[in-house]
Structures are given as C-alpha cells and as structure tokens.
Specification:
This protein is an alpha+beta fold and 288 residues long. It contains nine helices and eleven strands.
Length: 288
Amino acid sequence: MVHTEKAYAKLNLSLDILGRRSDGYHDLRMVMQSIDLADTITLSVQGEPGLCLTADMPYLPKGGGNIAAKAAAMFFQQTGLPAPGLAIDIQKRIPVCAGMAGGSSDGAAVLRLLRRLCAPELSQGRLEEIGALTGSDVPYCIRGGTALAEGRGERLTDLPGLPPCYLVVCKPPCSVSTPELFGLVRLKRMRFHPRTGEMLSALERGDLEGVARRLYNVFEDILPKRYSQVFEIKSRLLELGAMAASMTGSGPSVFGLFRDRGPAEDALAALSAAFPTTFFCAPTERAV
C-alpha cells in the first residue's frame, strides 16, 4: 500500500540569535509559520530490504545524504523496531537551498508517516526528539503551524495562529551558505534584534498589523553584498502593497505579508516576470 504526506514549507516571521553554545551551535529564538507550499512524500513498504529513495529533481541526494532517508534510519534506530524495506519518493515544490526548510520538512513528513504505519502509540514529544536528532528544523516541521522555536530550534511552544492573510514568497536565483552566514555572526556588533515578545502579544490579540510591524531577521544585517537581490525583492514587495517583507531563514527567499488577496495576486504576477521562483501562499495550521 502507498501512503502520502504533505511536507509544508516554513517561514521565519522573526529570527534572532542570542548566543553561541558550547556544542558549536547558536541559541536561536524564532517565530515560525508553516505555509501551504508543500512537497509530496510517498512511502511504501517493499519486499526487498533496504531503502530506495527517488525524487523528481535528479540532483537531490538519493542515499543517506538526503534528510528523508536519514529520518527513516533514525526512526528505526531510536524506536528499536525492525526496519522493513522502504521506498520513498519525493515530489518537490519547495525550492532547495531557499531558507524554507524544504529538506527538513521532507524528513518530518517521513517521520509522521512512519509513526502512523509502525508505531501509532509513539508520543508527539518522542517523535520530535527523534526529529531533533535528524536536523534542527525537523521538530518544528513535524509540528507545523505557528510556534516559537528556541535552542537550536528544537524547543517549541505553540502560538495562536497567524491571522488570515496571504503571502508572496520569492526566491532569487542564488543560494546562501548557512554555515558561511553563521560564520559571519558577531554577537557584540548586532545592534538590532526582533521584538519577539511584542510579536507574541500581537499574535495573542490576532493583530495582523502588529505582527507585520515586527517581522525581522537578524541575518539580513550580515548578508554579504553579493546577495543584493534579497533587498531588491523586499523593496519591490513593499512597493506592490505588502504590509511588511522579510527574508526567511538564512535566505535567500523573501516573503511579503498581505492582508488582501488582490494585491497579493498582483504582486505575484509582477515579481514572477523577473523571478520565476515566486509563489502565492497562505498560512497553515499544525500538521499534528
């Protein structure tokens, strides 16, 4: 039998770096939002042992280098269950290297599927722990919705959902190295930080304008000049009527927040002419 699961992209409504940890990672504080831009994961049990992974993008890693395969291996390692032969197929819609956790979301979808098929008694918390061993964004991607993510991103607190709105997400034709960007972080030189507490209060009130005023990603402040298209896209989204615009994750994707559908659709059409990897999206609720 074939089983399918959507793997939803995420956006950072805010991203703050608080300090460097003894394990080499950074302590983060982020407000995350899942959106309806999604890959489709198909999983089936095979008679032959081992794992066969396929994808509609030929350059994606097919073995243990793919986070979906890593997630499957980690699931059976951590649960102690015998691993059956598995076939996993990934149909990509989330752009790669885009700051939208496309790979992590694929891994999260595999973990949700394996729990459903092999260990329905496994708790949500335990599944997220397994996800954290797979990748920093995986626990959030297992859960989805609107959440505060702290630590490496694995400590999650559910938040009231983003009020109804529309999102236009645009990825310029470049990729940003996340390790390179973290390597540029100089905490003592960071003068500006998100007003995360105020954003949480705005979400509690259902105040979309209040959320929009507090979109902020500290990575924008250290982004090398060669990624100037990030700021060009931000400016264009604001010119096209976005309430606010921000880069997500370590970039280079930028999203604009719109109250009304019409201006968002107009912005999609205008940006798509120059940047084909542009999407019209809406927020989604928790996946589990």
